[in-house]
Amino acid sequence: MGILVVGSVALDSVETPFGVGENVLGGSATYFATSASYFTDVSLVAVVGEDFPEEHISFLKSRNIDLRGLTRTPGKTFAWKGRYGFDLNEAQTLETRLNVFETFKPTIPTEYADADFLFLANIDPDLQMDVVRQVKRPRIIASDTMNYWISSKPESLKKVIGEVDILIINDAEARQLSQEPNLVKSARKILSLGVKTLIVKRGEYGVLMFTDSTIFAAPAYPLEKVFDPTGAGDTFAGGFMGYLANTGNVSEAGIRQAIIFGSVMASFNVEEFSLDRLRHLSYREIEDRYRSFKAMTHFEGLSESA
Ligand code: AMP
Fold it and tell me: Which of 169, 242, 249, 262 gives the lowest tally of CB atoms within 10 Å of its CB?
């Protein structure tokens, strides 16, 4: 079972306390697709401009990502400029240039329209809705967004949220979207928009999953080396959806395992700049870190007499 992802493919300029990168490969769909490609077949729909380097296309192809839905149009590639301070949990956006995304209308190739798993990565919610209209009902639709769209297009965004099964956002976005500071109350409000599962990413503090009747909490992997948190959220979503699509098990137990695979992928991605860590990652390393997660979070239950 493969995944269709629609989102941004970008040239990022990023500054962290440990270094700077100018016009490096980025974008929500790029991180997602690369991460998911470790688990399943991925097809990507996005647009780039004339300036997008051929070497990035070769890299995505080397991950076996189906790029028939990636169009190149006259103009410049979407460009995002951001900075992180010593608190690596929060990116400060310095500049967002939509460029070729300003006129982009995603067209889903007919051969992708019956995808079982669809991920609406962070793009304009109106474009996300366009995509939902073009696909036959997938088994699972998941989506992401960010503060930029919550403040500029809240109504469009709420409509998309009503159409998806799983929403994956960070804690600040959850609070902003629900206008509610308490995260548990915030989750209740967001679930009332019609989404069945809400996954709230909390940077180095891990992930919380909410459904109507359950809460699941996973820590982030404690790392000594965090170099560039850009794309951690999309890499999480890629590992999460990739594992779900690989097993086809969308029960709560399957979703919990997928959350750990997502956390594993995000933990690798932040170790190096841009997507560099994902360029030399093996499946063996992914499994080893999954096992470390299991060991790290294990604790005994209460004894019968307690
Ligand atoms: P993350 O750190 O997982 O939230 O994702 C970072 C990626 O999102 C960067 O590579 C950016 O290119 C991309 N990005 C930033 N702002 C936007 C936006 N407004 N729309 C779509 N993608 C964006």
Answer: 249
